[in-house]
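Hi R.,

Here's the chain you asked about this morning:
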Amino acid sequence: MFTQVLTALFAASAVLSAPVEFGKRSSNETMTGGRATYYTVTGTGSACELTVTDEDFIVALNKPQYTSVDNHYCGEYVTITNTDNGNTETAYVADECPECKWGSLDMSPALFSALADGDFDLGVFPISWVWGSDNSTTYNSTSNSTSSA
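And the predicted structure, written out as tokens:
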């Protein structure tokens, strides 16, 4: 009996001491229910300390997800779909959006325009998105450049 109790306690302590990783991206997990907005990127500075312009396809990740892993999402690609019209584009995380809710992205004007067929009057539209891109390109946040894998 003592051996069984000791074994059970050992097993429980092993499970409880295992590291838990919050906010790790999953390449097959689609974020739904988010909203797209846009902001002026050029000259605003970037939480990821990247040099970006309004013409770059970048997003500011919502604060709940951005802060869940100490900004390790900087430079990561996302593939975004406007669920109203089906337009899909790829962009990379370059900033944090303090006002955005979980699943939402604040976009550069160029990205917003591409997804909204140039209609800035929309102001906001529903999106779904997934981590990664179809072209195996990675963004190097140190040199502000891209490279193919």
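Strands lie at 30-38, 58-62, 77-82, 88-97, 105-107, 125-131, 137-140, 145-148.

Let me know if you need anything else.
M.
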